[in-house]
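Listing S7. Sequence submitted for prediction.
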Amino acid sequence: MRLAGRFFGGAIPSALTTSAAPIHHLPEAGTMFKRLLVLGPAALLGAACGIDRPHPTDATVASSATVAFSAVKFWEAGATVSWNKLASDLATAAPTPGINARRLSAYLSLAQLRAAEAAQAAPGPHPPIAAAIGGASVAVLSSFFPLSSAQLEAALDAQQASDPWPGAQHADFAAGEAIGRAAGARVLTFAQGDLYGLVDPLLPPVGPPLLGPGRWIYAPPPVIARGGLGARPFFLTSQDQLRSPPPPLFGSPAFNAALAEVRHISDTRTQAQIDIANYWNRNQSPRSDSAFMGIARELIVSHHRSDAEAARIMFLMSAASYDAIIGCFDAKYHYWYIRPGQADAGIHTVFPTPQHPSYPSAHSCISGAMSSVLTAAFPSERARLAAAAQEASLSRLYAGIHYRFDFEAGLALGRRAAALALAADLDEVAPGTK
């Protein structure tokens, strides 16, 4: 059964003011984000390896976090946004190699969506959707962060004790929580078969690597990045469905012009460009989704979307970016395209170049997917979201690790992933989770 209402329809409040300042300095709206939680200096959860195991419970924990929820006001921003923010902070604080943020967000938001659907479909007086989302969130996050289970349960207690929306009955909280925990358990069962991070690009059927001029050269000991290569998608029907068209031929005029641009930026790089490169490298990475997720949370709050609407938006955005990374790494290991620094040793990067081929840019694949879903949800924010995606993409050029055609192809791939997500019948997605 579908959730009632049009999630991407209806009246939209006036657009948020877009500053001329760099996109990456956007604050999150609402007093909720000023107090959400305090994480201890010790980290929370490390995955068994940098490429994510397929089972959330396979992860190991370095130490437990200290989470303070005494001032939490879940009802100011909504349960979906609150738990999404907590998940982002837990993932960011985890020790290296950490949790893959794409994977975490996809399954957390799927559990929240299924919990909201189940609460609305419950017979008789509907239990609070917020309670169901809270129960689902605790179930999923406790699996990804097992040593933080006590703090997560305390967060759910804080949600129950907080001031509710008018009409929400605390007497029904337990029923909603139970519905949510059951939804979370179904999603965790589904997650165990996703094969995320298990396909080795150095081995058949993907490998061995293509060799010769213009090919990326893997230089161990750093572990080669696998990304979403070979993982089970949400919306794709094949691993190569989103594959980008071939990049410029190595040594062609188009390639030489693109390489010259990277070298020019390397030789003349400004502090502003360095700041942008570092911001997006920290806040949109395998370990962190805080950049676009932060924008999404702000828009959901400022546009007064309900918990059910927020869960749908968050899932579509997270799952679209998850599938975009599958398509992105399919293309990367299909073309094995050379990185700028391998083509010109005079290029100096802002930070170490990631251990995977250049084409297309993963940052741009993610940005294209997330910005497109958010634009569908908040059409009055189109210009702002496009600017954020463009800045995220340019950040990799500023860093000296990508060509312009890398990020142009990545943005296009991400938009194709978003189009598939927005056209999908979500009742048919992730079988067994409803």
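Caption to Listing S7: primary sequence and predicted structure tokens for the chain studied. The chain has a mean pLDDT of 85. The two ends are 9 Å apart (CA to CA).
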